[in-house]
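On to my pick:
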Amino acid sequence: MAAPKPTARTFLTRLPLPERTYVADALRAETVGGVLLLVAAVAALIWANTPLADSYAAVGDTHIGPAALGLDLSVQHWAADGLLAIFFFVAGIELKRELVAGELRDPRAAALPVIAALCGMVAPALVYALVNSVGGGSLDGWAVPTATDIAFALAVLAVIGTSLPSALRAFLLTLAVVDDLFAILIIAIFFTSDLDFAALGGAFAGLLIFWALLRKEVRGWYVYVPLALVIWALMYNSGVHATIAGVAMGLMLRCTRRDGEEHSPGARIEHLVRPLSAGLAVPLFALFSAGVSVSGGVLGDVFTKPETLGVVLGLVVGKTLGIFGGTWLTARFTRAELNADLAWADLFAVATLAGIGFTVSLLIGELAFTGDPALTDEVKASVLVGSLIAAALAGILLKLRVRKYQALLAEEERDEDLSGVPDVYEMDDPDYHLRMAEIYERKAAEHRRQAEVMGAPHKDDGRPA
């Protein structure tokens, strides 16, 4: 007797209600941060391309901090190594939550976004390497087009007015979280300078103390904030990029609830720190990193130099084909089926949107070409150009399906019984059907009264089954 064929798994289906609520809250905060990020980037470009350009460079190069502790850094350096540590701290919490309570906790469900994210990083790196191998450029920037900026992507969605269904939004968020993980690994492995083992040992000791305090459930920001600053300073002086300290501390937080807890410690701290990350840290980093000259010569070089052309094609072509191809192949060979309400064109549009690489791409660009300021600025310009092209293409593709998305989202959010829970999550609840029957009865009675007042014959519309 032949063995039964495995049942097909449907992906991008409706999220469980708690997950949907979390995704909606997280993306709402990221969208606000994305708008601020756009404002900061535009301000930087204006500042750096007007007669005030000299002041932009002067402010960015201003050094502050205690030299005795090895922290006499420029303002731009503080933004990249200091403020972005807050961003990566939040990324660490998001990753921990996804691993223990989100989409990544189920290996079968996690396979698709993980493979999609991995392919979405390998393909841009290969595109960059191919362009520079053929054009004789530097391979040092292979990692620049590998990152996705979720805040920038969500800001684009807000600007074009496209409301993605929750399944697509969750896929994009999970994709970005996994993308951040791989970006962190790239920074830690490939952009670590000569190690100071004493400082590195001190950083690990500080992390061990941080973990022990969390295990003992010691509370108080006045304990953790000074300790976090010490860990960050030691990590910076060790030669490992200082943002790794933020990720490590974020991963240590508990992101599961215990009996009697409304929110886990990770969720509480993320709620407190995310506004600081999205509203201050990332915009300030953009302000002091995105200010590059956009004269005609520089923009022309973006499409003629192999390093810059590799970044643009990596973001626009590599990201799209990597994520879409990885998703399609995973579905094809795991017998997974796409949600019937969606089409592969929707996945292609989301993959195109993931080509917006802004924040982490700018950071990696600075690390990759740190000894060549001119090329660093040109690579930053290519990140901006590539991200804008990806945003424009994604906007066009998403607009083609905007009515479908709006209809799906309206159905997801419909709450006719005014219970505070969308109706699609209550279909199996007998009380829901009783409430709906009462609502229809009241509506029918109101229609009858109106018909009697108007003197018109009344047609009974009936009650729901």
Q: What stands out?
A: Residues 416-465 form one domain. The first strand starts at residue 9 and ends at 11.
